[in-house]
Amino acid sequence: MGFLAEDAVYDQFNGARAEGKAAIREAFVPQFRGDYGTMRFLTEDLFVDAASGKALIRWVCTLAVDGLTRGWRGLDILHFAEGS
């Protein structure tokens, strides 16, 4: 959470959108508490442009619950400023 900007936006897997650090923290609670089962992120691609302060990460997230594993793919585009 320390790396997120105060005006960060998190588009959730269920279509909801969390805006701002407090809302994003709240949106993460059920995921990391295990409400949706065991969650794993597997990195598929990672591109970093250190000079521009940008990174792109393509991943697959799996949720395993009740003997069934589901997953979806996602993409994070990160912008870093002021050395953070």
SSE arrangement:
Elements: E1 9-11, E2 17-19, H1 21-33, E3 38-49, E4 54-65, E5 68-79
User: Major beta sheet, specifics?
Assistant: 3 strands, antiparallel
End-to-end separation? 12 Å
The amount of beta strand, in percent, is: over 45%
Mean pLDDT: 90
The H-and-E topology, N to C, reads as EEHEEE
> How many DSSP H or I helices?
1
Q: What best-fitting shape do the alpha-carbon axes yield?
A: globular
Rg from Cα = 14 Å
Structural class comes to: alpha+beta
- Proportion in helices: 10-25%
Strand order of the largest sheet: 3-4-5
In total, the number of strands is 5
Report low-confidence residues grouped into runs of 5 or more: none
How would you portray this structure in words?
The chain has one helix at residues 21-33; strands at residues 9-11, 17-19, 38-49, 54-65, 68-79. By secondary structure, the protein is an alpha+beta fold. The strands form two sheets. It has a three-stranded antiparallel sheet with strand order 3-4-5, with no helix packed on it. Strand 1 and strand 2 form a beta hairpin.
